[in-house]
Each structure stands twice: as C-alpha cells, then as structure tokens.
Amino acid sequence: MGIVIARQRKEKGFTQKQLGDKLSVSNKTVSKWETGVSQTKGY
C-alpha cells in the first residue's frame, strides 16, 4: 500500500507535507504510510 501512496503522491507533484496538509495529518504520518511503519484505515 505504501508504494502506491508514494507513487500517486509523486505523480501528482505533492510533497509529503502537502499531502499531509490536504489530509489533515502530519508529513511524518505520510512518511510512515509510505514506508509501511503505519497502516491506513480503509474506510
């Protein structure tokens, strides 16, 4: 899942901070999602 998030983010031209701001989470959270340290909730 993290690879997909990172790829989509990069294709859209977003930094981790920009994506985090759009999703109301920190850039550290985005980084954890992308590296597989933390899982996203599928809702």
From TrEMBL:
InterPro entries in alphabetical order: Cro/C1-type_HTH, Lambda_DNA-bd_dom_sf
GO molecular function, one term: DNA binding
Pfam families named among the record's database cross-references: HTH_3
Gene3D superfamilies, sorted: lambda repressor-like DNA-binding domains
HTH cro/C1-type domain span: 5-36
Protein name in the entry: Helix-turn-helix
Organism: Clostridium cadaveris
